[in-house]
């Protein structure tokens, strides 16, 4: 789904650690500072991953500035009221739980439960059981988007751990499987951008969309018990996706924004997502170690497009489901859905 584009603003504090640090850590400081200048909407699609990146970067840098920044945003959200409207289906539930783990504020855990209840209340809009998140919006009430795969499964599976209630594992698996069955190609591993109740699968094999599917699968399987009935199917779907993405990687290490159309421009976000998460999948034994070369090539390609300010280039604007020309004509800019994966890529390798 397309997110309403926010804007960049001066962050309250961007200072890095006072002592000299290694060049890659200096880059991490600059990337975090640039990311924190985004005017977070509370919330838009693609914002959650930037918060996750800021928390992770702050931990690696031993700099509390970014955790404090995210904590402030979360408290503002709680003050406004969580799960008041369907718009909160894009809210950063996983990041809320990361904050709760440190603060142990009961209101945060209750807010996470409310977010899970909002999700459970949506009506399935596909034969696979995938839930439509905007039934209140004409034109979207029967539509699902691949972007949601990075939101629901990872959040709900971590809520199961936080509460000790296994039914959240079931909810996470049902959500992820419903979306995967609706969106993933029957004869291959790639995902379509969307699915509509009457039209079926729609949109292109969008690179960033496949990145959202990849991250959602990996970061759910990372914590989903291997004995869970959905585990093996989700792992098989991940394996098919990774194999197909490997075949589609350009010689530069990047990916075309429409994965099946080499005439469409090269874009960086899928490469950053791969570089950030394939090593996690390898470490968890979810995919073969041979895929480390795919992640390495993606990382090298991404690094060539990070400027001195810490901004990732060749990141396409928010992208609605549409015909191929819609994807091929989106302008580039600096966005949280590019900065977040970049932060995770850098921070995880710097640990």
Q: Report how far the terminal alpha carbons are from each other.
A: 33 Å
List unreliable stretches of 5+ residues.
1-5, 9-20
Count of extended strands = 5
Strand percentage lies at under 5%
Q: Tell me about the biggest sheet?
A: 3 strands, antiparallel
Mean pLDDT: 93
Estimate the helix proportion, in percent: 40-55%
Based on helices, strands and strand pairing, what is the structural class? mainly alpha
SSE string, helix = H, strand = E?
HHHHHEHHEEHHEEHHHH
Enumerate the strands of the largest sheet in spatial order, edge to edge or round the barrel. 1-2-3
* Morphology call: globular
Computed Rg? 19 Å
Instruction: Quickly count the helices.
Output: 13
Topology:
Elements (H helix, E strand, L loop, with lengths): L22 H13 L12 H14 L3 H16 L12 H11 L2 H15 L22 E3 L6 H12 L3 H17 L10 E3 L3 E3 L4 H15 L9 H18 L6 E2 L9 E2 L1 H15 L8 H12 L20 H5 L7 H15 L1
Antiparallel strand pairs: 1-2, 2-3, 4-5
Helix pairs in contact: 1-2, 1-13, 2-3, 2-13, 4-5, 4-6, 5-6, 6-7, 6-8, 7-8, 7-9, 8-9, 8-10, 10-11, 10-13
What does the model show?
With 351 residues, the protein is mainly alpha-helical. It contains 13 helices and 5 strands. The protein has helices spanning 23-35, 48-61, 65-80, 93-103, 106-120, 152-163, 167-183, 207-221, 231-248, 269-283, 292-303, 324-328, 336-350, and strands at residues 143-145, 194-196, 200-202, 255-256, 266-267. The strands form 2 sheets. A 3-stranded antiparallel β-sheet has the order 1-2-3, covered by helices on one side. A two-stranded antiparallel sheet has the order 4-5. It starts with 22 loop residues before the first helix and ends with a helix.
